[in-house]
Amino acid sequence: MDIQSIRASLLNDDETERLYAVEDIITLHADELIPDLIAALKKEESRMVKELMVEGLKLLDVSPQFSSVAKFFESSDAFIRNCAIEIFGSKGEDAVPFLTSVMDHSDKEVRKLILDSLVATGSKYCIPALRAALRDKAPNVQITAVEYLGKINDEESLSDILEIFEASNEPMLRISCIETFTHLARREVVDTVLDILGGVTMDSFYKPSVFRMVAECGTKDHLPFLLRFLNNKNTLFFNEISGSILKIMIRDNIDVLPYEYEKYVINGVKDQNLDSDNRITFMGIAYRLCIKSKEEIFEEFAGENDMNVMLAALDKLAGINRERALKIIERRLKVAEGDLKEELLSLKALIAEQ
């Protein structure tokens, strides 16, 4: 089929004809029809045809048409905007110079999409552009840059991100900084963040992210901070609080907590109003504690009706008294059915191998 016929087929009312036209452009490497393909993609209504067009533009050399592809960023159609990210991403390092050259676009949403495209290239040369975007005036662009720099563990940007956190009053930007500190932070950064947010008086909006950060980057010296939240006023955040406490206890080999908190943890495992995940995390904390009655506590929980809590208790009991755990499993297997029986058999085999 000649070029003019293919060009005409791109506009044919018949979906099949348009599919054939796109396939011909790809097969023939008809670079002269790339502008037509880009223009047709903007108007195409068939999802199947659009997806094939995008695949074609990813395979063909569209570098002379980068400016036209970049116009997709301004589309009101999310699919078209994402097409631009896919196409630029497929070009790798070849697309980076062009993308960095248009980072001064007047539209903040376009600048964000350009960052998405730079990251999609997978090129290390996108990092300077991400660092530069930290100074963008638009919070959404800064948020995108902060999040990507965190994901790639760019430690060189840590001080700049900390400055943004200190200077900004934008809650979502601050949250993105805290989440990035979870990847990059050191103890001194954790202390700075806690000081800026007011420690235990911080806004509840920040608590889940702060607890995750402390869990990953904190030390035993941050346990008092976390323990202050271990009360009935913060049940909404029990997963994050108890999980953070457990991580630090494991990492720093902690086996003692103030008595009132040890008691609270044990009561938390017993509290059937809590979901099983919370109770199991409290159980993990209890297992780390150096308390005399630990074996009796886990044996008590091994009689739970909640299957997940019961299995977790048996697993922990096996770490203290393997033979006792196996005897309880044997007893429960006599009446167990279905999923419970399968889980008990699996746990029995696992314990037997230890």
What does this molecule look like?
The chain has about 350 residues and is mainly α. The chain has helices at about 5-10, 15-30, 35-45, 45-60, 65-70, 80-90, 95-100, 110-120, 125-135, 140-150, 160-165, 170-185, 185-195, 205-215, 225, 240-250, 260-270, 275-290, 295-300, 305-320, 320-335, 340-354. It has a domain at about 200-290. The chain is about 70% helix and about 0% strand. The longest helix is centred in the C-terminal third of the chain and has 16 residues, at about 340-354. The termini are far apart. GO terms for molecular function: oxidoreductase activity. Pfam families: HEAT_2. InterPro entries: ARM-like, ARM-type_fold, PBS_lyase_HEAT.
Short description:
With 354 residues, this protein is mostly helical.
